[in-house]
Every structure is written in structure tokens, then in C-alpha cells.
Amino acid sequence: MPAPLVEFLQFLFSGITSGAIYALVALGFALIYNASHVINFAQGEFVMLGGMVTWALLSQGIDLPLAIAGAVALTMVVGLALEKLAIEPARNADVVTLIIITIGAGIFLRGLTSVTLGKDLHALPSFSGDEPLSLLGATIMPQSLWILGVTAGIVVLLHGFFNYTLLGKAILATSHNRLAARLVGINVSFVLLLSFGLSALLGAVAGILIAPITATHFEVGIMLGLKGFAAAILGGLGNGVGAIVGGLLLGLIESLGAGYISSDYKDAMAFVVILGVLFFMPSGLFGRRGTERV
Amino acid sequence: MMTRFTKGLMLAGVALVALGLTAPAPSPAQAQEDPIRIGSFLAVTGPASFLGDPELKTLEMYIERINQAGGLLGRELELVHYDTGADANKARTFAKRLLESDEVDVILGGSTTGTTMAVIPLVERAEVPFISFAGGVSIIDPVKPWVFKTPHTDRMACGKIFEDMQGRGISKVALISGTGGFGKSMRGQCLEVAPDYGIEIVADETYAPSDTDMVAQLTKIKNTEGVEAVVNPGFGQGPAIVTKNFAQIGMAVPLYQSHGVASKKFIELAGDAAEGVRLPAAALLVAEKLPDGDPQRPIVVGYKSTYEAVHGEGSVSTFGGHAYDGLMLYKAAVEAAGSADPAAVRDALEATRGFIGTAGEVTMSADDHLGLDLTAFRMLEIRDGDWVLVN
């Protein structure tokens, strides 16, 4: 393989790996947005909790698979509690108020974690070793394959859930028209609860998958949450396919930009893209065109 | 009513006079025994608490020990401390209070370069010796008459790395730096001193402190013609990710990390990828590994065991060591001057020769208020998950 092509492949692998994580976080945003039109800014904290709780359980001598299960379960409980204790009591409030509540919840969860689990960085072990695999001259870590595989699996499962189960269809119905959904007998508040639980699950999985690569600490969710949000905007808020495409695109833009243009602007590039999308395609790549009824 | 009131007043007056008569007048002997007042302002809370917290603990611990051993020149030491939270404005206010109402004999502290710089004009005007625990080279360059500092600088870390490279015959170097304060400052210093060591910087990449993947930057470096070694100035998780990515894409040239990640945490985070990585670090980090003849060994082993006996195994940090050095430098200067008079202590501080602290051997002069040379840093290599001294 000629060197420039190998270089390109390396950027590609690196971009897709980050992109898959952004996609998972973006899916979490999309789920909650669909059910409630709320942008859950505590989504990054779900990511952080996934990694931190797994580490905490591991350090107690619990096996990795069990620690992962425990962390996902606990994060889901936190997601459900957030909906039950903070969002539901304020359900008649403005969407903006609810968004502010999620920002507050995010700060609270960060603070709580820093007090209970400490402010240190922690590494998780890779799921299957640290021996890089060589592919057409470029290298990829086994953990990246885990990330891509699990993300693909989750996407397939979510697709099945939304299209072939009654519960999934109920969530979709609620996202299309809340009032009509209620009229045909869908328990809308249960759907909202469920969407928080699912989002927490997605966030936790993303956080656990990336922790062996980047290490985790109590503030790791801020940037990952923002990038996930950017990916969701890029794809079109509330669109599942858009969230995935947006995440992958964002990862690629970052890695190709850092590789071919300048690493100084790696973070900036992601946000410049968002600004561009907001200016020229306010509903994102796949979003429904927003119509306001007067 | 009226008479009762005046009567009360008179009684009170009599009582006051009686009290005044019985109170003993201060004797000259007791004035001599006034404590030496050490002022301090540290970032014990806030973003730089990892600096200020061990510094304050060290000062409190050693001042108590000095007092138990009979004080300094027979006088007790008294610590007056304020927490700045790394806020330069607060530091200025507190320094003013220390100088004007607490009337301290010396100021030790300033955990960060920002808080230290804010205080310098005040101590220069008040003519009180000031020993800072902050890293920035701007504190003592240019030299200010009343300002000293204990920690080594970024420039020295770069020098140490480049010196080691010279020994290995390396001259073409790539930099990959974090864009946080630490990485940015060290990158600038490395670029500045590189020509002094005949080092050419052939690639200069950066990453944000919260970046999760540096493969793109490293691939670019890998494909740059003639790179013989890579230096990574940075702090926190970034260097660990760089180290992992470096191993992932199979780069074979030597990798140098900075003193910013000189802790066991780095080895834990980077795992096997850290094998063979070299970095400059203070002697304190490898206290027990220093050879028996090393003049620093008794000092760093002593400080480490004393600190860890109180605050727990593995709690010692080089930051607390900077505070230890500051306090001990002051103690030595007061003993040499034979008084705590600010001007005499200042002259004695400047005349410090061969003082051994946790940071290294200190020899000050009128144009060097730090007094450390490159031997302050030890070059370490990571082997089998532990530090090994490289000579």
C-alpha cells in the first residue's frame, strides 16, 4: 500500500472509532428529544457514569463483565430517577425549563461523582488485549473493533425495537404526536420514563466502551456530551439515522481535519460544522423541516 | 434614674482602673520572644488544590516540628495562612493583609504562577522576603530583589530532555503538545531552548486537553521525514492517550514525556504502552531508588516518610516538596543571618550555597533567585511498570 493511502486509512479508522462513540451519545439525545422535545444535557453524565462506575466496581474486585452490567444498570437507575424526580414533577413547565433542569442535573451528577468516587483519572482494561491489529498497513486497536461492533449491534437492536415491538411503536407514536398517542391509549408518561432509561443505557455503554482508550474521570462527560449533541444536530435532532450518520461524520471530520489541515483546530472544526449546519440547514441532514403552526 | 446611671458608670470606671493597675506591663524579655510570623497564601481549594493542599499540609507539619524542637533562634514560628482558590485578585488582597495588618516577617507561597505574579509588586514595595512555590520562569526572570522560588522550571525540563537526546545522538525531534496551560508553556520553552542543544524541531503538533484520540497527529509525525524522537509536553489524560496511540500505530522512535505526568498514575493509565518511555522528574519521585551516596537521598527519603506517616502511603507529591524547600531555605537563611530581620534574611537567602532540598542542590546568587541546575531533574525510564534511573 502506498504511504498516503495508509495514512488516509489510519485517519479513517481513528475517525470512525470516535464517530461511533459520538453516534451512541447522539442516539441518546435523539431518544429523549423524540419523547419529550427536551434536549437532555445530562447525557454526557450518563457516559461518565458508565465508565466511572465500572471502574469503581472493578476496583472492588468484581469481574469486568459483571462490573459492566452493574454500571449499565446503575446508570439506567440514575436516568429513570432523573425523569421521575426532576422531569416529571415539572412536566407542565416549558421545554426550556426542562432543559435547564437537565443542565442542573448534569452539574449535580458531576459533583456527586467527584465527591464519592474522587477526582482522579482511571483506566479500564481493554476488553481483549492491547495488541494493535494491522489492516492494509494501518493499525487498529481491538477495542476500536469492540466499539464498532457494539455500536452496530445496538443500532440493529434499536431498529428492531422501534419497528417490530408494540412498545417501540408506542414511543415512535408519541414522538410524532403526543396528544394523538394519548388518545389511542398510549401511556405517554411511561414512554417518557422509558426513553430516559434507554438513553442512560446508551450513554453508559458509550462511556464503558471508550474508557479503555481514553481513561475516565468525573468530567469526561462534558466534552463527549457536547460532541454527541453536535452530532445529533448535524444529523437532524430526533432522527435515529441522522444521529448515527452525524456521529460518524463528526468523527471523520475531526480526524481528517487534524491529519490534513491542522491539529490546532481539531475541536474547533466540529463546532464550525455545527455552526454551518445551523446557518444553512437548520434541521440537519436528515431532520424534518420544522413547521410552526400559528 | 440619672443618679443610678452615673453611679453605674463610676463603678465601671473604678473597675477598669483596678484592672489596668493589676495587669503586668510587657517586659522587654517577652518582646524578644515574639513569634516569627510566616505569612502564606496558597490555592488550597479550587482548580489548583492539588498544588495548594499538600503545600499547606507540609508547612503546617514542619512548622509544628520546628516549634517542638525549640523554634527558630529560640523564637516560635507562627503561620498566618489564607486560601486563594488560585484567584490572583484574592491573592493580592490577602498579600496586602499579610503585609499591612498581620505584619509578617516572610511570605511563603503562591501555588500558581498567576497568584505569585499578582503579589510581587506588593512584596517589592513592602521589602519583605517572598519565596514562591510556583513553576513559571517569569517569577525570577528578570530577578526581583525580594522574590525567590523553589520549583524547577519547564525550561529546565526541556533542557534535561534535550541533554538526554544529545547523549543518544538524536537531533531531529517532533513535538506533540497539549493546548492546556502546562503543555502550551512547556512547548514554548522547548522551542526556545532546542537550538542550544543542537536540536531541530521538525514537526509541531497539538491536541486539546480533553481530546480522546491523537492517532491523526501521531500518524502525521510518523510520516514526517527524519523524526528521531518525539516529545509530549502535557498534563492529565492526554499524555497517556498519546502513549497508547504511539504504541498502536507502531512508532519505533523514543518517546519522551514531561515532568507533568511524573506519577504512578501515568503508568497505570498508559499500561504496557508506557514501556521504554523516558521523562524528567524530581528526585522525590524515586526517593528510595537513589543510590546511597546521593546527597539528596536523606532529604527526599526523610520528607517522604514524614509526610506519608501523617497523610498515608503514596500521598507525597513534588508540590509539597516545594513548600518544604521554601520553609527550609528560610530557616537556613534566618540561622545564617542570626535574626529574622527582613533585609538580613534577604541577603542570606541570596547567599545560599549548596543547600540540599527536595528539588535539588540550590546555590543562589544576585542574578539567580532559583539556584537549581539541570541535575535537579533525574531522567527516568519506565521498565516493567516501574521507574528506572537512567544515567
From TrEMBL, chain A:
It holds the Pfam family BPD_transp_2. GO terms for molecular function: transmembrane transporter activity. It is a multi-pass membrane protein. Keywords: Amino-acid transport, Cell membrane, Membrane, Transmembrane, Transmembrane helix, Transport. It is found in: Cell membrane. This is Branched-chain amino acid transport system permease protein. It comes from Roseospira goensis. GO terms for biological process: amino acid transport. InterPro entries: ABC_transp_permease, BCAA_transport_permease. One of its GO terms (cellular component) is plasma membrane. Belongs to the binding-protein-dependent transport system permease family. LivHM subfamily. The chain crosses the membrane at residues 12-32, 39-58, 64-83, 95-117, 145-167, 179-198, 204-224, 231-253, 268-287.
UniProtKB/TrEMBL annotation, chain B:
Belongs to the leucine-binding protein family. It comes from Roseospira goensis. One of its GO terms (biological process) is amino acid transport. Residues 35-371 form the Leucine-binding protein domain. Residues 1-31 form the signal peptide. It comes from the Bacteria. This is Branched-chain amino acid transport system substrate-binding protein. Pfam families: Peripla_BP_6. Keywords: Amino-acid transport, Signal, Transport. InterPro entries: BCAA_transport, Leu-bd, Leu_Ile_Val-bd, Peripla_BP_I.
